[in-house]
Predict the 3D structure of the following.
Amino acid sequence: MAYFVTGATGFIGRYLVENLLQREGTIYILCREASQEKVATLRKKVGDLDGRVVPVTGDLTQPKLGLSDADLDKLRGQITHFFHLAAIYDLEAGESEQIMANVEGTRNAMGAAEALKAGCFHHMSSIAAAGMYPGIFREDMFEEAEKLDDPYLRTKHESEGLVRKQCKVPFRIYRPSMVVGHSQTGEIDKIDGPYYFFTLIKKLRQLLPPWMPMVGIEGGRFNMVPVDYVANALDYLAHQDGLDGKCFHLTDENHYKIGEVINIFARAGHAPQMNMRVDTRMFSFMPPFLRKTLGTLPPVRRITSTVLEDLGIPQTLLKFTRYYTKFDNRDARAALEGSGISCPKLDTYAWRLWDYWERNLDPDLFIDRSLEGRVADKVVVVTGASSGIGKATAIKLAEAGAIVIMAARKPTKLEKAKAEIEEKGGKVYAYSVDIASMEDCDRFAQQVLADFGRVDILVNNAGRSIRRSINLSYDRFHDFERTMQLNYFGSLRLIMNFLPVMEKNRSGHIINISSIGTLTMPARFSAYVASKSALDAFSRCAASEFSDCNVHFTTINMPLVRTPMIAPTKIYDNVPTISPEEAADMVAEAVISRSKRIATKLGIFGQVVHAVAPKFAEIVINTGFRMFPDSAAAKGKSDESAPVVSPEQMAFAYLMRGVHW
């Protein structure tokens, strides 16, 4: 006894070959000349220690599979079972590609089976051959298939039709439903079918606790079977007598609605479940032309496309949310009776599928999340780079391989910081510029673009902070002018200079170092917070305009950092702060993730409290205002020593760690 298998190195084929090795006989597998490496991998996986898996060079797209005359002569009359598994199982594949593989490939496989005088031709079809039949599709049905407008559905139907009408060798047809991973190991080789929902489930798990009730869709029906069931059933049925000319549905008796499928995997992934599910058919009251019109509106198409892309769900999958076909598998069950082979229930092995996906196939695993991967050889401008956050950020980015442009007002300090980075091997360039001067900003930007041609990342870090009560600012209106000039207008001027090149290159990232104060609204910082809030508002508006240009805007709501900027306020010598290096880590996180906002949990909490309980937030801030006095510098005095901090002040500062007081 000998076997011939096409698609042996594929997902189902591998498990079939593994089963066939438990029987007697040589297993000949079709492979292209360039795929010998896959054969070696297959042999290792299936444990072929005796060399019973023998590659035969050929090509699915050639007549008689492109088998040589020598191979045809050698194998003629030797092949008892010819398994044709090779096909494209991909909803996103092009139509011509699917026709060549699924239809012409089947035609060529039948020609090879006939030339080899094979005993039986086993054709791996699919429930897709039924199209989108609105009802129960039996194993003896074929011509009744409906709605075959999708290339995948159509080519699977046509390839099965070729076998039924033109195969001159005794044949058997197998229609598995959607094949998922191994029921014992969870192993699968690609993301398909229900796996497209896993990213959505994971995002829900990250955002919400498992007990949170959700509203979702009910949708059409999914029928899924694990690969080991398909391989075991195929192997068993192929070796039973009296089954030639029959078709078998290798399906689960349970037909799960999409909402049920998502909930089963949500339980497996410890994510919130959809307690209330809306049947999509309830929207059928809308005239078809109206639904089609709404679906073609540019905003609807753009939002839909963006959401699906973010979740990794192909557009073609949406049509199958209305897939209501059910499959009768009584012939397959009858033929398998007594074999011990049956399809397990999905909820008994769903956790294994989830676990394997999360460990091996989650798209997030393949994203380069290193700072080096994001900034290597990128031109990065960091303002206020001679000390504090700017210097720490410049060091970190240079160490990661970025071409760092350090911008600061004082040349001496700037050159010293530059030399420090160069000693560590970083690529760094220093430019003296006064960000508070619009003319100097223009000069600096033009020089950088002339020298480097582009700016990939702009870190607007240079800033001025003033801690002074409003009642001490009545005659100091210039406090508001100075903070606005540097923190808002200076940063904005650089953005407006570098943004056109980013837009043209369709690539760029603008990071604005803001403050936790724009979220918590602390007292004594009205001038500073107002200027930072203006920049925040601009960034949010600009992000919407450049969303489709691959230009990103990130706001970092930085907590209190121990830098020279806070040195005049001596009370800060005794309150908790973060270091410039920790602040640089937040900048690195922004560079890597390109998030809209980077903030501490306390900052986000403060924003929420201001939104839902503004009076309570006002009372808390006022308590801190009365508890912490204005500094001597704010009062126009000098030579202030660090004041003694009371236990109450220290406790309050630690409770509100990072907030400016």
Notes: DSSP finds 23 helices and 22 strands in the chain. The longest strand covers residues 508-515.
